[in-house]
Amino acid sequence: MIVALAGGTGGSKMVHGLTLATGQRDLTAIVNTGDDGEFFGLLVCPDLDINLYCLAGVVADRGWGYADDTFHCLEGLATYGREAWFGLGDRDLATHIHRTLMTRGGARLSEVVDDLRARMGVEARVLPMTDDPVRTIITTATGEQRFQEYLVRDGAREEIASIRAEGLDTAIPAPGVIEAIATADLIVIAPSSPIVSIGTILGVPGVRAAVAARRERVIGVSPIVSGAPVEGPAHKFLRGAGYHECSARQMAAMYADVCGTFVIHESDANEAAGIEALDVRTVTTDILMPDRASRERLAHTVIAAVG
Ligand code: FO1
């Protein structure tokens, strides 16, 4: 069994690649929920949905939401003066309504995700990192913003003064999370943000220690290539968390306690010696995943690297 720790778009590409390489039944994805939020009274879980939609083959090319979705409901809400900056498509809204109704009926988030997974025909196991609410809060000079407000509404323009994940300290790993990590043949840290995606998953009490105990079976893939993030404003999150170096080596240093092997892009080959000095074995290859073939190829490299 392969376990992947994943955030949204970058993470889902790695998860997808791993399923192409091994089949869906051999994969468990443990997914960040710090990006979750409430919109129009509905519980929206972007990273879980991105992974589910990707595995179901229905994700839009932009990497989130349903392919070919329409936005009539959101447009209607805008005419009533409602804030419509978060692109909730009509088909996507069905997911949020179903999830909200299930949770209001007493279901845990992990039960909802499993229900969505089964109904979408996804065979891979998809687990939220926790069933408890965790919300990433970004503080800038303007004040506190919810994660999606900072990222989508405000376009991640401002420098970040601090980042915190509300509810993380007391969150309990979702059922199956620790067991999956403890028994996995291979644990892949997907190229998601080390702060607001992977950092949040590892921050759930007990998860970092469980992954560290499997360090020799853990392989990370760098979300940074040539000093810049492959997806999203990872550099802003890094600076906001007090890291002033944005490099593959910095990523490896942040994971050195949990990760025995790290995959970097060939353009960063000059950083390999610095990473090996952290006692992290380094694999250098093309880690960009623009299409299906590149995802599958990288997944095969990742699997072969840890044997
Ligand atoms: N990302 C955007 O850049 N703009 C959007 O309007 C947007 C809407 C959205 C709706 C549902 C969903 O599941 C994801 C959505 N995302 C949108 C993606 C999301 O903001 C981020 O990519 C993740 O939270 C980061 O992993």
Question: How does the overall form come out from the CA principal axes?
Answer: globular
According to DSSP, the number of beta strands is 14
- The helix fraction, in percent, is 25-40%
- For the record, the CATH class is Alpha Beta
Radius of gyration based on Cα positions: 18 Å
CATH superfamily membership: CofD-like domains
> What is the residue-mean pLDDT, rounded to a whole number?
97
Which residue ranges are poorly predicted, with pLDDT under 50 across at least 5 consecutive positions? none
Give the biggest sheet. Answer: 7 strands, parallel
Question: What separation lies between the terminal Cα atoms?
Answer: 13 Å
Strand content: 15-25%
Question: What ligand species are in this complex?
Answer: ligand FO1
In CATH, the architecture is: 3-Layer(aba) Sandwich
Query: How many discrete structural domains?
Result: 1
- Spatially, the strands of the biggest sheet line up as 5-2-1-9-10-13-14
- Total of helices: 13
What is the succession of H and E elements?
A: EHEEEHHHHEEEHEHEHHEEEHHEHEH
CATH topology name, in short, is: Rossmann fold
**Alpha-beta classification:** alpha/beta
